[in-house]
From TrEMBL:
InterPro entries: P-loop_NTPase. Residues 982-992 have a biased composition (Basic and acidic residues). Residues 926-951, 967-992 are annotated as: Disordered. SUPFAM superfamilies: P-loop containing nucleoside triphosphate hydrolases (SSF52540). This is AAA-like domain-containing protein.
Amino acid sequence: MAREKRDPFRDGRRPAGRALQGEAKLPTFSPTIALRSIDGHVTRTGTQVMAWYRLSPQAWSFRSDGQREILIRQIAAQLGELQGRWLHLRVTTRPYPVHMWAESFDQNALGRMPDVPGALGWEAFLEGEQRHLMGLSMSDKEVFLGVEVSGRSMIDRWVERAAPMLGRVVPAAVRAELSALESELNHLDALVAGAGLDAVPAGASDMSWLMHRSVALGLPAPRSLSDVPVGVGRWESEDLATFTDGVELYQDPYAPTVKVTGRVRGQSVTRDVAVLSVGLMEGLRIPEVDDPWMQHSDRLPFPVEWSARMYIRKPEEVTGELQRQMGKVRSQIRHYTHDHDLEPPMSLARQADRVLEVEDELTSGLTQLNTRLYGWWRIAVSGRDESEAIQRAQQVLDLYSPKVQIEHPEAQYRYAREFIPGEQLASTAYRRRGSVTWAAAGVPAATASVGDRRGIMLGETCTATRRPVAWDPWLAQEVRRASGLTAVVGGLGSGKSFLTGLIVYKTLRAGARWTVLDPSGPLAELTRLPELASFSRHINLLRADPGILNPYRVVAEPRPEHFLDDEDPERSWRRERLLAAATRRRLVLDVLSGLLPYDVARMPHTRIVLLRAVREVGGAADRHPGLVIDALRRHQREGEDHSGVVADFLEERRELPQAALLFPDTSRDDPWAADRDYRLTVLTMQGMTLPRPGSPREEWTDNEALAVELLNLASWLTQRTIYDADRNIRKGVALDETHFLSQVPTGKVLIDRLARDSRKFNVRALFASQLAGDLLRVSGFASLVNAVFVGRTDDEEAQTEALRLLRVPTGVGYEQMLGTLSPRPRHDDRPDDTPRQFVFADGHGGVEKIRIDLEAPHLDHVREALDTNPDANRVAVRGVPTEGTRAPDEPRAVGARQVVVPAGGIDLDDDTDPADLPDLSAAEVRSGAATRVGPGDESWGLQVIDPERDTADDTQLELLDDLEEGWADIDEQDGLAEPAELQDHRAGEGGR
């Protein structure tokens, strides 16, 4: 009888001696480094747990010695709190994130202008900026600090080895070690986050970068490192192969370098690395004389890696050692004095004194600052071959000599592995002992920190640290709710116009709108660049239509729709209308007074008769200065003889060609007619003669006095364009020669108004002046200014005022530094076309010396357009300009027709009648050349938007004196009640 066979696996059991293939023993992986796991910012080896932090950059330049000492003491105090712990300090570099900047810059370029066929487009511009940045090979310093959390017990190590099995059976046991250390980690996180270190726990990407830069020491840093997956912050032992695979270190016997081979961007790369050690060091005077000794390496043109292992000693350990050392010294002194009756050597006496000083430091004062430590500081440099690495190592030795001795030890392989977190110390040789204050004086995180990472590229820092400088002119208004006021200060040839042109061009490409007042005219060349020409216009005010600078029209008329957010929109609008009318009357009074001879203008009766006539004309926007002269004539007929004298002088000035800009021609079209939207408007006044800066008013000639008044009106005209566009659009105003505005009362009002309205209307206002003192004399300017650029300044008083504008300490040696900006050899006779240097304060605490950079190949045409250096080689024949030579306000000769010029030439003075030149059109005569009419000859007009104001400032209160008559006119026209401000003002002045 057949029996049924039993399935041995039917009841879930397998026969003895049989095993599943899946349960076969798997090969084990053991990392080639000491680390066993990374959990967040915590690393674990077989014997130690360390928490890693990333230190914030610390500004060092342009700070007083007191501020620097405070920083050193703050760092020392935090180190002193870590008694009994091992620290691992790692300083590495990361290439400047060009792709991240380009992405942020592209996203921040809101409303940029469309591309022009055949010209430099946005994509080509952005690509050119990135290529140029990548070619500069600049990097950011990154400083990491590892702090020992605790040692690891036998149970912790057993749990780690059994983690694969315990993770399935008892998952909580695997996390028990970190859970037990949670309170200690929280304490360390709060301790190192204080002022001084300003450290934050290293993130997953930070730990990944630190491991890559440490294991692959000396290899070129990748331009970009693959991001750690979101939510992943733990690397098990098997995951550590991510950092070690593909990297090999080896050393030939007694070789001065170690070779590191790895893969970079898919290619095998080998570098020779020389590891140095800090040896004997003399007493450095930091910060009085010397810079932080760890920051010295930032001056080298190649990357330098630092690794420091420190142990913060406990006071009881130091006290016992000092007592033993003191006993040795005293025994040696007795040996000299008692045994041999000799005076002990001075070196022995100095040792005894120093031991007593250290003992006194430990028993008095702040114990955190006097805590002792010992440690080892290593420096690593790399080269393409051994000779280059040794050459760079020699540069490090020369840099620190003679105050610091740098050693080149043997056993380079073991020293190189010290840079990897968790590795053991290679040797105790070259141990350095000192206080935490001495270690803190190295200030490892000191670097150049200025600008932001989303704005236009200005250039690079040129201090101890070299890094790109990006600046967003509208970050202050849109994010930080700060002013957009910017000062550009520097002497002749300091590069103010070049810097202004760079800012205007690059921000235009990014979508901003600019109005530029450039009296001399070089910035007008921007309007002729192919990519900007169709969006730009150049207006030479001295050749513009009569009345273009009518004082009554350059002050904006408020619009009701811009006060809808106020509590009482109608009251705010009426107040602004009153202030606008009062400002017009004050502006007309100042301008007409400036046109008069100085002896006549200073007479008290002159101002009285002018004030009476201006009040009679009123402050409406449809008036003009000719009505004031008519009023003076009426007063003359009424018996006021001095009114006739003033009217005679004004009539004489009215006949000057330039004065026609103030008096409109009623028979011609309104120059304020509406026009198309322009992105760039450049106003020039070529041929205008301004007085010498600083010269007193009584020394001005009639033409110079008129020029100052025209400049004042042109500045008001410039600010008027702010209110023509939407208040949220990014706008910019650039004013040159502003030192003359500070000498005119209404000029000061204009500067104050731009400063206060820049945030409300999203405006970046650039004020260029030769002397910082002229801007400081404007009330409130120093407190409202946001960013500052200071170029070469030679006068001592001007240097001090420039430092005040920068908000940096004075009297500590920075004054002389301003005189060394943009250095040039004395006997160099080549054209001075070197990039200019400025001290840049970004308005957010960063102050650094920077070098303006417009050297990128894709910007060659912009650099040529902004080049204002004269060159006789541009003229081929004496007296006959070459084809490429033209006046700054002259359009390019595109499609120009030939003109037969008589032998005696053509007189193109202001009195020349175009009809007298049959071969030239009227537009060609105005442009000064026989070319096609460019954008500068097109008609233009402006709309008016006046800013909202919360409270009346001092200037507004002064203008209230002139409101009574203006309010009467408005009341009659609009039927509005008199505002409370005017009622209160009249009540306060009732007894006058």
